[in-house]
Amino acid sequence: MAYKVPRSVVEAFYKVYAARDVDGIAELLDDDAQWDISGPVDLLPFCGAHRSKAEVIDLIGRQIPMVLRTFSFVPEAILVQGDRAAMLSRQSSRRTKDGRTMSYRVANFMRFRDGKLMENLSLIDSFDVVEQVLGHPLARSNGARRGNGDLVAV
Amino acid sequence: MTEPVPRAVVEAFYNALAGCDMETLAPFLDDNVVWTISGPVDILQFCGQHSGKAVVLKLLDRDIPLLLEKRRLYPESMVIDGDRVAVLGKLSARRRDVGHAISYRIAQFFRFQDEKVVEYVSLIDSFDAAEQVLGRPLVRQAGRQAENSDFISV
User: Which ipTM score applies to this complex?
Assistant: First the structure.
């Protein structure tokens, strides 16, 4: 029979992940966990494919905090069906190097097995995140820079 | 409390959306639907928040096709929970002006009411999408150009 993840497990994972509680996350990660973040690896070094529990822990506990430190992770939607969960959240962080505040939406698509997270794919508005991490607008094809109003607040 | 949306309704709606079948899609949109696509509006003009059934139908049937033709969604994972639906998939299309193939990841979150969509939020890998639409790498901070390996395939 196909595994169905209890909502309580998904919510427990969300809670420790939102708090960036590395020990709590580790308890809910499968040894073969896969964690993917979609985005340009040369600009956002934490993007890419991360394989195994140790790599995921290193990602969340060390690699991401080298770039940004998250202080708020607010769920807008948590959906659970079968062995899968999907979340839409608003993440607020500070750039590690200067404390500048960043805010963007994150989508997580997860798969669980036996109460542990097996797979996660995170999708972010990567253009927006890159600009916030760099601290300046990216050059456009016509050389134009955009004003503050061009970014979509979603 | 809002009624759960039946899977048959979701599948009929999503098939119409994925195939850009506006005639079939229209009855599934609430008159006051709010449709939000996250991304840089100056590069991807269809991004932003669009309110009202007529506006959303125009967006899907006329505005997006001005930039992207032969648009098609390929769902990889769908989670249905109560009145909400989340889909992780890929959008493939061709740039209308030069015919280049474009493909990027998309996360879609829908909320239904009375079997109609009242709210839609999508997150796309907008950095990847913007580079494909521009037809060149975006300028990096250090002047480095993107290589294919910079973008993960997940």
Answer: 0.87
